[in-house]
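Q: Sequence in, structure out?
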Amino acid sequence: MTALSESSVQTAITLGSHVTAQAAPVFQSGSGLGGMESLGKMVLGLLVVVALIFACAALVKRMGPMRQFSGANQQLRVLGSQAVGQRERVVVIQTEDARLVLGVTSQSITHLHTLPPLPEDEVATKDHETKTLPTFREALAHNLKKKMARTSSQRDNS
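A: Exactly. Output:
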């Protein structure tokens, strides 16, 4: 092994430091948030996709396939339904020429009885007699009025 002189070692160290200083890569970012931009774009894209899914679900719910059966000129109409078990029902269906009493389970539908059709004037009056459920706003206002009347009558009695 040969011994290196002190001057050659100093020269090697000096050359090495110049080479490393020149060859060191410099990372420069315009804003300093290079990864945050791509993360923001990804989150924005995800939110757009989720919003699109909810919009499609609302559209299907509003104009879904079962909406075609709800109308005044239906050939079949459910007149009544009564649960007789957890998954069993007795249903009365109005057709053009008869009323059908059906037993409906999760596995089958069974014809139980046939009744004569209702006269047209009875069908029209039953359509007008059907009660619609109040909206949430109407029900809340009604219940608040009842409660206020009760509390004021209790104060008057005390």
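The mean pLDDT is 77.
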